[in-house]
Amino acid sequence: MTEKDNQKHYYRFGTFTELGKQFRRWWNEFNKAQRAKKVFLEKIGAEEYTPEEQVYDTGVQTVTFPRDKQVDERIWRCVRTETDGTKEYVPNVMRRTGYMVLPRKGFRPSDTATRVYDKRLFAWPEAAVQYTLKEWAKIAGVSLTGDEQTDRQRVNEAMQHSTFAHYTDFYHPDYDPADPERQDKRTRTPWWAREAVRIEVQRVSLPKVRLSSYYRMLQAQQPAVGMDAHGVQSVQEVSPIFFEWAGKFYCTCSRSCQHPDIEEISAEGFSAKMVVAREAEEIGKREERGS
What we know:
It is built from 7 helices and 13 strands. The chain has 291 residues and is α+β, with helices and mostly antiparallel strands. Among the domains are: 115 residues, no CATH class; 78 residues, no CATH class. A hairpin with a 5-residue loop joins strand 4 and strand 5.
């Protein structure tokens, strides 16, 4: 059975409808993410990769290299070996997370060579639970009295109007800048440790288009929860297929969709249009090569 045979719903909608315009923007972002991923894999010399979401081709979780390539295991860490001997790698780095108090309203911190900030900002009630009272008191510059209620009130008063950015710091396990034994400024971090961090920062910063955004756009209903062979609740999701033909977008979805611009069609009708669209695409490519 093919992936398409597993789809439950087949849809089409006009390219100039409200949904069509929204889908065009979404597709452009999808293509942008795909191009960025391709460039990243070419730069590191990877042959294959596994996506971050197994039912949808987005992000890069692990990579594999050609069998004849010598992998520098100072830079790369093997996390899995397949039955055929293929090894899956991730950059050989560790990570540490934290929260930064923004110095003023509207300030947006920029990523650095070793630190990546979340795009979302946090208010005090969300950030407060991330550190202990003692840690927040140090950040806020509040002297502790020893009375927890009083100290908590003073920290809350100092931080309640602040905005916070969540960040992730990356470092090589052999060269942790926070390690007291590594504080000697004369000890230079070797290139391979810097390279591992550089690659990991690039990997986590790749643009991603999540399957959840596809569902929201089509106003997909929540899926029915079934049971697998072991009696565990499961939801079967399948990567969508989509293409454009003759002024309409065609797409599949594992869930029933309720957007008013959408029209459900048969699996046979979807397949027929997809064949025509792909044939036209191949003809266009041949003509381009011939020119």
